[in-house]
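::Encoded backbone::
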Amino acid sequence: MREPVFRGACTALVTPFNDQGVDYDSLAKLIEFQIAGGIDALVICGTTGEASTMTMDEHVDVVARAVRMVDGRVPVIAGAGSNDHRHAVEQSKRLEGVGADALLSVTPYYNKTTQAGLIAHYAGIAGAVGLPIILYNVPGRTSMNIDPPTLGELSRIDNIVGVKECNTDQLGECVNLCAPDFAFYTGEDPNVLTLLAWGGIGVISVVSNVIPGDTHGLVAKWAAGDTAGARAAQLKMLPLIKALFCEVNPIPVKEALNIMGFGVGRPRLPLVPASPAAHDRLAAELAAYGVGAAGAAA
């Protein structure tokens, strides 16, 4: 049986930027906040981390430094993937080389492919590295779906160990078709309970950037059999989650972290800072939830 990369809650961490590039001091503060909050794993340079705005060297350097900052306390999952197969393979090899514990490999986008192309693409990446790979199926971003039979076939490649599934409608069929030791994670913060009810084991989350402890706690309550507690936690989060997606991710979550005092800077163009209306909504929802400066209870 293959062991999952993690169980519980994993934060798709933002990348703090300043005028010089990546703000590594702020990154270190974010990582310490996450680990102190009880988070179970971290994704570095994923979609929320604005990886699509980074050069290959910058992307690899951010992951390398994060690995050193984390120092083995939780798994570091490196965002990876491309619509250029050669780039995806080279990137995955370099991320393995700097010490990532696993890869989160997004489907090809824009040029997309067929289901046969997905199998060839992912088989090629898996054959080039020894790391465990979590597939990332996010049709709303990529216009490319990993269909259930395709996921079932990919789930039987030894080091393709799980999926971050954002297409909730197909979860049941995917569970039926995939290997029994294949791990399911949701990428949809409002639907954590849905994923867990289908037999999934965790979430790769945006909201956990601001409430890592409660996001970890939601999954932990479910795992402990406290379904009422898990339900209450999910319901409490919903207004904050909605605010964090009031504009294109990661615009609102970076604004929320700035409100909290983390100083993560602006998103990179073509993303722009949150509108005044979004700022006000986020400030109100953070206060209503009880989040104050640097994540402390308000």
Q: What stands out?
A: The longest strand covers residues 160-165.
